[in-house]
Amino acid sequence: MSLIVKKFGGSSVANAERVFNVANIITEDYKKGNDIVVVVSAQGDTTDDLLEKAKEINPDGSSKRELDMLLSAGEQISIALLAMAIERLGFPVISLLGWQAGFSTDSNHGIARIKKVHAERIRNEIAKRNIVIVAGFQGINKYDDITTLGRGGSDTSAVAIAASMNADRCQIYTDVDGVYTADPRKVSTAKKMDAITYGEMLELATLGAQVLNNRSVEMAKKYNVELEVLSSLENKPGTIVKENVKMEKTLIRGVAKDCNVATVSIVGLKDTPGVAFKIFNKLAQQKINVDIILQSVGRENTKDITFSVPKGDAKTAMESLSARFYLSGQRAGETSFDLPFIAGEENDRFVLDFNTLRFDDKDPLMIRLMQGDKVLCTVNVAQYIAQYPEQIRITGRQEAVLPLFFRQNPLSLSISVKPWEAVDVVPITD
């Protein structure tokens, strides 16, 4: 008797016919006396449909926490429908959400990392001879909030279960019957490989091969989980992913293309040591994976840096490297623009000069600096001026030069308003 972990992608359970096909695959192995744990993705285009619904409600972008609450519903539908199909076939089964299956993650919504799989519930259900259906792609953080694992998260869920339970096999079912030398839908001469190493599979996955997620391959290699990639639509052997394959092999194993990337270019950076570190440190704080990095040769004390990120992270990457500056008041009106932190930085200070601001001591002139939907700093200029009646006298309608000093360190950002250089204070912040 073996413990087998099976993972089925969204296309494998896209409709009722395919759900029953998957149910038959599962029960055939169960009838042989094997213990079965199944990880399932959301049906077909369910995740994309849910994202579109979110955009209908909030075109400006919903919080990552609420998106996780929404997107986790896709897997919940899949596991319930598959469990119902297995019930109809006359076999004992139970469906579990990620948190019920023991998936503990960090709090990085949308790209959460698995901290541990507490598999006691799964083991107890197996002991009752139940087929266990687990929702892939999701877990729970220390605050009991639902989290999602990001692109290809169901693959990672399956490997994590196999690793934590020392499964005999971990089978990844897709709409293709194995790993090919190229995408067979685009290259007619592509050939299926009987076996491939973790390292080779990781390279292909990282570079765009959509058969396996690169995080799942990394985890499989780390915990020595042997993977088998095979088709849910055809009953034929697939491709084994393991540590070693035969030594004599072709130099080039496969070719992949990744269309799910975005490139970001920062032009005119000061060519000083540490600038690149500041850029990539900001991206690392947002848990953004940077792949290819190109730096130009320095010219006139400046250089350009171009790098690639997952397409879904492009907006967050841009927001992490810039902020939106808002200025509003009765006489100033309201204006906003993007403020690039990195490109305009000099000695940890950014300076903006406004020389036509009209305000008085009663005008609620407000300065807000935002990064995405997060308010980094807010300053009430009238309150600031009121602190210094001797140095700053504003009576009636005034026209003044207002330099704004932005100071930043890795943990915080502050704004200083200094109409006169003799005044060196920290403003009141709301």
What brief labels describe this structure?
single chain, 430 residues, alpha/beta, Carbamate kinase, Alpha-Beta Plaits, 3 domains, eight-stranded mixed β-sheet, four-stranded antiparallel β-sheet, disordered C terminus
State the secondary-structure class: alpha/beta
Number of discrete helical segments? 10
Number of strands: 24
Shape: globular
CATH topology of the largest domain: Carbamate kinase
**Main sheet characteristics:** 8 strands, mixed
**Which CATH class of the largest domain?**
Alpha Beta
What share of residues are in beta strands? Answer: 25-35%
Tell me the span between the first and last alpha carbons: 65 Å
Overall mean pLDDT score? 78
Description:
By secondary structure, this protein is of the alpha/beta class. It folds into 3 domains: 172 residues, Acetylglutamate kinase-like (Carbamate kinase, 3-Layer(aba) Sandwich); 59 residues, Alpha-Beta Plaits (2-Layer Sandwich); 97 residues, no CATH class. Helix content is 27%, strand content 31%. An 8-stranded mixed β-sheet has the order 3-6-2-1-9-13-14-12, sandwiched between helices. A 4-stranded antiparallel β-sheet has the order 19-18-21-22.
